[in-house]
Design goal:
Layout lengths: L1 H14 L2 H40 L8 H18 L1
Pfam family, one: DUF6809
InterPro entries: DUF6809 (IPR049215)
Length: 84
């Protein structure tokens, strides 16, 4: 594939003038921007889908709380210390 790209590039370099090369490069840049935008939109859609699934699965549970988890871990350590 790399050789094909290099061969095509050298053919275009011989055939195109400076202004045509600039135009071709602008088109390639726009294509890259569109591809990047499509990838970002795909990621965002997947993330939103995962968020929605998580909300459905945890609908009957309270939201995560770091403080509550720390308190639970502290209580676990205390109860383990008493049973020793």
């Amino acid at each position: 594939m790399d050789r094909k790209i290099k061969r095509t590039h050298s053919q275009l370099a011989r055939l195109l003038g400076k202004s045509e090369k600039k135009l071709l490069l602008r088109i390639a840049d726009m294509e890259d921007e569109l591809r990047d935008e499509a990838c970002l939109n795909s990621f965002i859609s997947g993330f939103r889908l995962a968020q929605g699934i998580q909300q459905e699965l945890l609908a009957d549970q309270p939201p995560y709380s770091f403080e509550a988890e720390e308190e639970w871990q502290a209580c676990e350590k205390i109860s383990q210390g008493k049973s020793s």
